[in-house]
From TrEMBL, chain A:
Protein name: Palmitoyltransferase
Compartments where found: Membrane
Lineage of producing organism: Eukaryota, Metazoa, Chordata, Craniata, Vertebrata
Residue span(s) of domain Palmitoyltransferase DHHC: 156-269
Enzyme class: transferase
EC number, as in UniProt: 2.3.1.225
Listed transmembrane segments: 59-77, 83-106, 202-227
TrEMBL record, chain B:
Family recorded in the similarity comment: Belongs to the ERF4 family.
Single Gene Ontology BP annotation: protein targeting to membrane
Keywords: Golgi apparatus, Lipoprotein, Membrane, Palmitate
Transmembrane segments: none
Protein function: May be involved in protein transport from Golgi to cell surface. The ZDHHC9-GOLGA7 complex is a palmitoyltransferase specific for HRAS and NRAS.
Gene coding for it: GOLGA7
Thylakoid as UniProt keyword: no
Organism name: Xiphophorus couchianus (Monterrey platyfish)
Pfam family, one: Erf4
Golgin subfamily A member 7/ERF4 domain mapped to chain residues: 11-123
Name listed for the protein in its UniProt record: Golgin subfamily A member 7
The keyword Membrane is assigned to this record: yes
High-level lineage: Eukaryota, Metazoa, Chordata, Craniata, Vertebrata
């Protein structure tokens, strides 16, 4: 009766088999997703995560178009004449410069500028716990800043409500891209990306090569005209002359920044020029030597990208990410400015109703981190500042259309306003119902393991 | 055979910015690890990591030559060459893995490579102490 003998059932085999039956079915449904597909910032990815661009890529096609058209006109009209009368080197030099300009431009546009990945849920909870324990419970909670000493100078670190971490020094949150960027310089609409730690050198080589190219074209055109001495070609000169000035202006400005180890952000805010307060403050990051500053900025070691775009998501995060991204789409779709204003008003009114100690949360209690709000409205602790700063954002956006964006405080002022709105009202903590937070609690939580309860 | 041990707590070693924006981590010994690991051992690990990051970011002749070469080739050289920083990061990963295998895992701890947290923190996971064995 051997064939009737029963073998003891292995419980592990039992528990394993239904899973193995499920797995092939699951695998058919879910292909492994890469991290860029669930990236929370406002960026676009190409070539399966190899290239990154801001979602609002501004006028990058226009920049490319201008460069190509101007160079094309040069090669088509000036080069044949100059090759005949001078030397064949002219189109060769022009060609090399043109390729260098385009390569630098594309490199600047498609490189990760130094985006800091957002804090995981555990990190955020840990920071929140530290803030709670260090702050006093008797008076209103202090604004979310932390002071540290860098080379014997006091630097204030701000808390980023979107990324849920204290921003490292020289890091700023770009509201257009919705990312914290290290060594944030500015968001350049001409290039369609932020300029930060990782792509500043490409940006600099772009403007330096563009200056050389436009000066070269300008010189060749002048030579052409001089040789031809015909009035009809004066129009070409006028066209060629105007683009040459702007790259040269921005080159001078950025050369100054590189030599003094500053970012556009810091220069415009006057962080180290001693404008704020009476105390003397120098730049704690400078090496006090122009050559060293230039070397460090342009020839320093190339830091890696921190966002690991092409890494794979763990399978348990893939589905929640899809659901969460659907959830978050409605709040983040581009709204009209009127809607944004109404929305911010509604938020404020809701907060007023729900927060008990609103009267203590005086926006003027945080002058340093929200200077723009103070400028906007001098009214004391009422809801007025919120409304006016929300509406002033509209006006600021209209004022954004600026012929010289490299020098305009577009990027930092937007992010500053956004953060000042958050930092004014400490009641707007992690506990407030923000879509960002609930999404991150879903996406980033390895919550079940440690019993971490997503805060609502 | 068993499922992975449950996570009891996570400790985060934050960045130390006292010398600027270079990647350095605080060497202060966290109180939660007092019962788990020797203070000297832990500080030695952090100090070695800090030294490795300093080496990665050092403005030496190698990085200077790399930077100049990259500039002259319109940065095309980065498409085929691994940067000095990336090479050091690989060494750091190997070091952390070694430390985990030899020192931290036997004590129920796990160090997470900071690059996986955007070089913001060193995450130390403390696992529950399961004293039974199979």
């Amino acid at each position: 009766m051997k064939n009737c003998e029963y073998q003891q059932i292995d419980p592990r085999a039992l528990s394993a088999s239904p899973l193995s039956a499920q797995n092939p079915a699951e695998k058919k449904v879910q292909r492994p997703r890469r991290k860029w597909e669930a990236f929370p910032g406002k960026n676009r990815f190409f070539c399966d995560g190899r290239l990154i661009l801001a979602r609002q890529n501004g006028v990058l096609p226009l920049t490319l178009g201008l460069i190509v058209v101007t160079s094309g006109l040069f090669f088509a009209f000036d080069c044949p004449f100059l090759v005949e009368h001078l030397t064949v080197c002219i189109p060769m030099i022009g060609g090399v410069l043109f390729l260098f300009v385009v390569a630098s431009l594309l490199r600047t546009s498609f490189t990760d500028p130094g985006i800091l990945p957002r804090a995981t849920a555990d990190e955020a909870a840990d920071i929140e716990r530290q803030i709670d324990t260090s702050g006093s419970s008797t008076y209103r909670p202090p604004p979310r800043t932390k002071e540290i000493l860098i080379n014997q100078q006091v630097v204030k670190l701000k808390y980023c409500f979107t990324c849920k971490m204290f921003r490292p020094p020289r890091t700023s949150h770009c509201s257009l891209c919705d990312n914290c960027v290290e060594r944030f310089d500015h968001h350049c609409p001409w290039v369609g990306n932020c300029v930060g730690k990782r792509n500043y050198r490409y940006f600099y080589s772009f403007i330096i090569s563009l200056s050389f190219l436009t000066s070269f074209i300008f010189g060749c055109v002048i030579t052409h005209i001089t040789l031809r001495s015909q009035a009809g070609k004066g129009i070409v000169q006028a066209i060629q002359e105007s683009p040459a000035r702007y790259p040269l202006y921005s080159l001078c400005f950025h050369t100054y920044l590189v030599a003094s180890n500053l970012t556009t952000n810091e220069d415009i805010k006057g962080s180290w020029s001693g404008k704020r307060g009476a105390e003397e403050s120098g730049n704690p990051y400078t090496y006090s030597n122009i050559i060293t500053n230039c070397c460090v900025t342009l020839c320093g070691p190339m830091p890696p990208s921190l966002i690991d775009r092409r890494g794979f998501l763990p399978p348990d995060e893939a589905i929640p990410a899809a659901a969460a991204s659907e959830m978050e789409l409605p709040p983040f779709t581009p709204k009209s400015d009127a809607n944004m204003c109404t929305q911010s008003t509604k938020d404020v009114l809701e907060r007023m109703l729900h927060s008990s100690d609103f009267h203590g949360l005086c926006p003027s209690g945080n002058p340093k981190t929200s200077p723009l709000v103070q400028e906007v409205s001098s009214a004391p602790a009422t809801a007025e500042p919120y409304l006016s700063s929300g509406c002033s954002r509209q006006l600021a956006r209209q004022a954004v259309v600026d012929p010289c964006p490299l020098l305009s405080p577009v990027a930092f002022s937007k992010s500053n306003r956004r953060d000042s709105l958050h930092s004014i009202n400490p009641a707007f903590r992690l506990a407030s119902p923000s879509p960002t937070l609930s999404r991150s609690a879903l996406v980033l939580g390895d919550g079940p393991d440690i019993g971490f309860i997503p805060q609502h | 055979m068993r499922q992975q041990a449950a996570v009891a707590a996570k400790v985060f070693i934050q960045r130390d910015y006292s010398n600027g924006t270079m990647c350095q981590f605080q060497t202060k010994f966290p109180s939660e690890l007092e019962t788990k690991i020797d203070k000297q051992q832990f500080e030695e690990t952090i100090r070695t990591l800090n030294n490795l990051y300093t080496e990665a970011e050092k403005l030496g002749s190698q990085s200077f030559v790399e930077g100049c070469l990259a500039c002259l080739t319109a940065y095309a050289v980065f498409l085929c060459m691994e940067t000095h920083y990336e090479k050091v990061l690989k060494r750091i990963s190997k070091y952390i893995q070694e430390q985990n295998d030899k020192i931290y895992a036997p004590r129920g701890l796990l160090l997470t490579d900071p690059i996986e947290r955007g070089l913001r923190v060193i995450e130390v996971t403390i696992y529950e102490d399961r004293s039974f064995s199979r």
